[in-house]
Amino acid sequence: MATKIRLQRHGRKSYAFYAIVIADVRAPRDGKFTEKIGTYNPNTNPATVDLNFERALYWVNCGAQPTDTVRNILSREGVYMMKHLMGGVKKGAFDEAAAQAKFEAWKKDKQNGIAQLVAKEEEAAKAAAKARLEAEKKVNEEIAKKVAEKKAAEAAAKAEAEAAANAEEEAPAEENVAEA
């Protein structure tokens, strides 16, 4: 029986997540499967993978052929790295402890790289937020300046109108005083 490691679609319309399954090549995509070895959710950032590492390694060593997407997932999770290291152990290039140490070093390096990417994204988001805040402050200052100018112009017009009204009231009073 030829087996494949492939994705089985679940979820609702426009929000798919997948089960990583071992299935016969003749079985339909969402049909009968031999074993479920994990899940894959591409909707999160970064994509979430929950994988039973030992079972995935077992099936890869048994000869199950993964689809392209599953091959990428298994490669990122380190299944193929471990298969490669175990091949070195079988050939006698190094012992199992050295293989495990190499795998742990590879995994630690990969996690550091991911942490650096996440930090870089967070820093970029903070810089973008700061730039938006500065732009908003600038716009608010311009609006405040326009409002202040408008209020000053209204106050000047009001003072001028009051002065003219006061001048008109005082002018007739002065004429009455001059006639008497």
Tell me what you see in this structure.
There is one protein chain. The protein contains four helices and five strands; from the N terminus they run E-E-E-E-H-E-H-H-H. The mean pLDDT is 90. The protein is elongated, with a radius of gyration of 37 Å. By secondary structure, the protein is of the alpha+beta class. It has helices spanning 53-62, 68-77, 79-91, 96-179; strands spanning 3-12, 15-24, 35-41, 48-51, 65-66.
Task: Give me some keywords for this one.
alpha+beta, S16 Ribosomal Protein, Chain: A, 18% strand, 180 residues, 65% helix
The main sheet orders its strands as 4-3-2-1-5
CATH architecture of the domain at 3-79: 2-Layer Sandwich
What is the 3D form? elongated
What is the number of strand segments?
Answer: 5
**Mean model confidence by pLDDT:** 90
Strand content range: 15-25%
Structural class designation: alpha+beta
Give me the number of helical elements. Answer: 4
Helix content: 55-70%
The CATH homologous superfamily of the domain at 3-79: Ribosomal protein S16
CATH class annotation of the domain at 3-79: Alpha Beta
| Weakly predicted, low-confidence segments | none
The termini sit apart by: 128 Å
Oligomer: single chain
Order of H and E elements: EEEEHEHHH
Radius of gyration computed on alpha carbons:
37 Å
CATH topology call of the domain at 3-79: S16 Ribosomal Protein, Chain: A
The biggest sheet amounts to:
5 strands, mixed
